[in-house]
Amino acid sequence: MRLSLKTPRARLAAVMASSSCGPCKLSFAHFRPLPVTILTVVIYLALFIPLLIIHYVPPSPPPNDSLKSAIGVDLEETWRSLAAITRRYHPYNSHANDDVRSYLVQRIQDIIARNGDNATEVVVDNDVNVLYQTRAISIYFESMNIIVKVPGTGHFEGEVGDVLVNAHYDSVSTAPGATDDGVAVVTVLGLIDYFTQPAHAPRRSVFFLFNNGEEDYLNGAVAFTEHPLAKTCRLFLNLEGAGAGGRATLFRSTDAEVTKFFRRAKYPFGSSLSGDAFKRGFIRSQTDYIIFDGHLDMRGLDLAFWQPRDRYHTQWDSMAFTSRDSLWHMFETSLASVEGMASDGSYTFIPGSGRKHTGVWFDMFGRGFAVFQIKDTFIASMCLLTIAPFFILLTVYFLAKSDKLYLFASSPSSNTPLPAKLELAGFKGFWRPIIAIILAGAAVVGVALLIAKVNPMIMYSSQEAVWVCLMSLWIIVTWVILRAANWWRPTATARTWGIVWLSSIAWLLLAACATAQDRLDVGGLYFTIFYYIATALALFLALLDFFVLPPTAHIYNAILHTSVDLDDDDRRSLIAPSVDERPDDDEPTEHTSLLRDASNLGRGRHIGRRPNSHGSLSIGASSTLPTLEANEDDEPDCAASVHCAQRQYFHEQHWSRGLPRYTWLPQVLLLIPIPVILTAQVALIVGTSIAQTGADGNPVATAYILYAFFTVLLLLPLLPFTHRWTHHVPVFLTAVFTATLLYLLLAFPFSWDNPLKVYFSQSVDLHSGANTVHLIGVRQYLRGVVTENLPSAWTTDVNCTDDTARLGLYRCSWTGLAPNVAPGVSSPRKWAAVNATLIANATDSSSARHVRLHITPRNSRACRLLFDRKVAGVTITDPTGVGKTTPHGDIAEGVDHLRLWSREWERGWIVDAFETENVKKALTGRVECLWSDANNAESEIPALDEVKRFLPRWAVVSKLEDGLVVGEKRWSA
């Protein structure tokens, strides 16, 4: 349709006539406050809710009958085995440990017999004794491992190696060990049941190792390295527990090739960031994984429970706080991984194959699993860092070449006030996104540090509240800044500039990721790759929008070249309004403004131009200029939706009515889902991992900074859209922020569901019988726990100082209830016999000083031998003369601390110590024997029983070291 309205009266009549066509109808998909608010909020909720469920809730197993018919494994029977194992505390140095060992041997034999497998071999290791050194401590350990060999059916042209599945059956002295490591142990029982069935015979031979002594320096795994059966194993799966339930996560893997087996699991869960944390030393505790990887050069996976840590190594690590769902998740992922390993016929994993690359891996919603080689992610990172900016700059070049680079276009100069409808002002929104990011980020960090200062341990029980508080604050501050800026200086480029800054920040994060991949061999920042891909694509789309606009020179020409196709009346319209133009007899006077009410300039008129089919205006034969319709606050009456679709938003530049109205939708779908999913998974893993480490002495301020960092990363994709939000969500979040902040600052941080962990130890002087009870914990609460709750501390002095063994924690010591760890032996002097004999003295530099010690504890099979000065070497035998020591590795720089572990009770050890220097002074030291059996704590360790009975309900006790009671005795020779 062609419009030609030559006079002001005709144009006014046309506008008035159009009022009969009804109110303007706007599409819900336009970039307007209500749809933007609803869509972005719904997307975030749709992502966060399932991510939280997956993070905390393990999948449920299928009905047991269907499971038995499908794979031949009875999950209920496996669950009952867990009950038998966790009846009592069963550390290596306890009688209950022997009972668990006997039970496991019997269960294994029953499973094999039931499946009619005559080829499977069961080895009860009572032969390997190993002497090795770790952390400058020398350890002598006698193996009590159980090894089950299921022979493979495959025939290979060469050696391909066997598969090892490992779990430790000892617990700590203060926990029944349901998840550390009971669920893993019964999972291995279920795997034995599966692979000993004729229909499921493995292609490679599979060894199932139940090792004893993991809780004390990984002794059982080290002993296995000296067993002949260990020499053929090339692949391994280690099953562990560092929490008390939930999902089993892939802690770490040796390489990308072996990680691909985990991809077979139906419910994979984990991120390579956890492996990087171990690699860089952020996680100081270790598992048997490092023995199989470092000592045997095997390749494999470390699968473990990891949350919550407040029940880990306490009496609440029991069946009451785990579930069949957790058991099923570990069993399902383990079965899928081991099946993949056992059925693999390649030579990839033989030593020297060269096909071993650091892996980058992560799950997607707990159902999919991605595995990459770190070299590939580094190449991808470098390509993205260079190629993506190139294409973006190329697009900018073409925009500039076609005179459509509105982002950097300034308004044309004029001697008179410029009509708003001819304003360009594309650079107007440049600074506001980065200002919002800086101020909102500073506010989030400030509040995080405030919480860390006022109530640092609240994260221990309320990490979800911390997330909600910081996220609410970020959204509020960002919305206020961007809405205020948009009200003060509205601009149509706000969304595009927001995406520009977001993409720039993502580029910097990706550069940091590439540096970590190249210099540190760390791939845990993989989410930045996808973060940048999403932001770069969104920026590319945002730039493409400007290609549909007319060249900026056409808008300049509206002022500079007004003679084109305009009659006199139209020329006058550039300096005077037309809609409210006076009749002809109302002549202008000297008081009439040359540019009267610029906002009304051209309202309802086309200034002599004709609209084309896209709602633009034609200038001359080929030039186009956007229509000059009414502004947003003057709702026009028009039934044609094309006019509605072409109007700009409130007070924004008039040229923006020519922008596409729907491209914000693909930008939302690019910027939010994938970046938020991957970043949120990492944030939840990091947040849950560090939330309760304050009880271990770790600095809490670092944890709060990490929460603030991931808060900003998770919400940055909202930045380009926040200025369009309605006020309803920010107002609601203001109330949420206020409530959560008050709670985080004022609430008590512990509860029965999230108890504060304190550490117990008791030392006894075996000469005098004097005993001291030690309780170690967080300074702010420990003294009150001791002096206000424990009766034995009410009548004696309590000495509290900084603990030298666990940095960051506080130690309170007092004279406690005397232990009776050797029933029937009244005097502590007789709890351990220590005889030191000088066999040979050094008379010259070529002679060797030789001291022999006989150490025999009562009701124990663990002692420590400490020398006041280092000796060159030691040998250990048992008093019967049957045992033989197998050195494992080198004993470097001599020995001054030797730990002794025996598989038999009260048998003791014979230790020969040798010196090479000509030292006339007697060799001296002390023996510390350990008692770790807390199953009869009321009668044998009443101080521990008192702590359990009288601790407040918001606290729980764990062991401090190998022995609950440590008896010390001096010696000299």
UniProtKB/TrEMBL annotation:
Pfam families linked: Peptidase_M28, PFF1_C, PFF1_TM
Coiled-coil residues: none
GO cellular component terms attached to this protein's record: vacuolar membrane
Record-listed E.C. numbers: 3.4.-.-
Cofactor(s) the protein needs: Zn(2+)
Location(s), subcellular: Vacuole membrane
Molecular functions (GO terms): metal ion binding; metalloexopeptidase activity
Vacuolar membrane protease transmembrane domain residues: 435-729
Principal location listed in the UniProt entry: membrane
Keywords: Glycoprotein, Hydrolase, Membrane, Metal-binding, Metalloprotease, Protease, Transmembrane, Transmembrane helix, Vacuole, Zinc
InterPro entries: Fxna-like_M28_dom (IPR048024), M28_fam (IPR045175), Peptidase_M28 (IPR007484), PFF1_C (IPR053975), PFF1_TM (IPR053976)
Residue ranges constituting the Peptidase M28 domain according to the UniProt record: 145-336
Transmembrane segments: 34-57, 378-400, 430-453, 465-485, 497-517, 529-549, 668-690, 702-719, 731-752
Region named Disordered: 576-595
Entry's Gene Ontology BP terms: proteolysis
Membrane topology value: Multi-pass membrane protein
Domain Vacuolar membrane protease C-terminal: start-end pairs: 756-965
CDD domains noted in UniProt: M28_Fxna_like
Family that this chain belongs to: Belongs to the peptidase M28 family.
PANTHER family linked: METALLOPEPTIDASE M28 FAMILY MEMBER, VACUOLAR MEMBRANE PROTEASE
Entry function: May be involved in vacuolar sorting and osmoregulation.
Protein name per Swiss-Prot or TrEMBL: Peptide hydrolase
The species this protein was found in: Drechslerella dactyloides (Nematode-trapping fungus)
